[in-house]
Amino acid sequence: MKNLEAQPCLIARSLSLVGDAWSMLILRDAHSGLTRFDQFRRSLGIVPTMLTKRLAALTQDGLLETRRYNDRPPRDEYVLTQSGRDYLPVLLAIQGWGQAHCNASDVTRFLDDETGIEIEPVMIDKHTGAPIGTRAIRITA
Amino acid sequence: MKNLEAQPCLIARSLSLVGDAWSMLILRDAHSGLTRFDQFRRSLGIVPTMLTKRLAALTQDGLLETRRYNDRPPRDEYVLTQSGRDYLPVLLAIQGWGQAHCNASDVTRFLDDETGIEIEPVMIDKHTGAPIGTRAIRITA
Questions:
Q1: What is the pLDDT of residues A7-20, one digit of tens each?
Q2: Which residue, A74, A100, B70, B106, shows the most beta carbons closer than 10 Å to its own?
Q3: Residues of A in contact with B45 (CB under 8 A)
Q4: Which of B116, B34, B83, B29 is closest to A137 using CA atoms?
Q5: ipTM value
Q6: Which of B102, B113, B118 best probes binding to A when mutated, by most A CB atoms within 10 angstroms?
């Protein structure tokens, strides 16, 4: 999609970098520990040329970085950068919406590793502490 | 993208309904008060056939509903349902990622209407109160 990065809106600019389901699912898999091309390919059932393209874009845009894990033949794996790690709240927000509005039977669940309780993602405003959607928002240019 | 709705993952199932930049930007515009076809078209610079398709899908999937605003000729506008309103945390999470990782100059800002302070979206786990990413997560089938 063209020109999104030039829009005066951070949502549009963000979507110009990560704005399709494949890219988001690659980031999901990277957060669950996958790093190698074949792992992503099997997990996603994605056409290899498409996966190559998406991994290259996520690397160029700074969400993933390559790490050499084999010298002969040369093989790189893909690991999350800080920017990629910071994408986790987006994935959890999508998960949270799905909990309420998709068929939630037979799905993987995200548990707090220490308490074992399923994570219930809530987006709050750091300043007021109030959940997003409970207070009026004003949008300014 | 096919078969996402059959994956045992709510992120995939959610992305099978809202999984492209146009749909997310339509929801962004709906949250900022736009309701009519021509408003979305002007805001997004989207090809009309594409906009028609996306609005129909979001309506069929229950994030938007149509409301008749003119009888002769018949004209419908598109308003958020509860499901569509619940999508706001996803948009704010994307906005929050953009604040940290995109060019944030000359952008629209989301202010708390009462305090006038820019919203800083933070995703927390309702049970622990901890920001997502600060505690270990376990994924279970």
A1: 889 999 999 999 99
A2: A100
A3: 3
A4: B116
A5: 0.93
A6: B102
